Amino acid sequence: MSKNNPLVAILDRHHIPYTLHSQSYSTRTIEETAQARGISADSMLKCVLMRDLDDQLYLACTRGTKRVIPQAVRSHFDCRRVTCVAPTDVESRCGYALGTVNPVLLPTSVFRVFDHHIALTESITISSGNPLLGIGIKYADLIELCRLLGHPVQVSSVR
User: Fold this and answer.
1) Is 15 left (phi over 0), alpha (psi -120 to 50) or beta?
2) 152 pLDDT band (50/70/90 cuts)?
3) Distance (Å, rounded) from C-alpha 112 to C-alpha 119?
């Protein structure tokens, strides 16, 4: 399952340690996914794809049990209005199905903001882009990898 995964290949290429968290059946919520993988929902990264009135995309990331508040994202980026991308449009807008979006594999044109509370945990589980496979990675390594790949990354409050 992980042999041909693009995110695993990037992690290996950059010599970043990680753990794989697989599941054998499909799930719909972060809580169900965490249970299927035998991990805490709070240790998972929730990624919410948003857009402003000019159609600029933003990815707001927080811990799995927390909510992203669009007003906090709007304030951080000084936008007039920011809304969540419709669940039916996520895949066509970023190339990944709802529930499989992660901050590493998106284009550099998508601005990323990580809730500063994520730093309270040493590691976080992110989606691999495959709904049946999560990847555990140190938070500091995730931020560094995003920056190495040229992704605009900021840390702020999004909740």
Assistant:
1) left
2) confident
3) 15
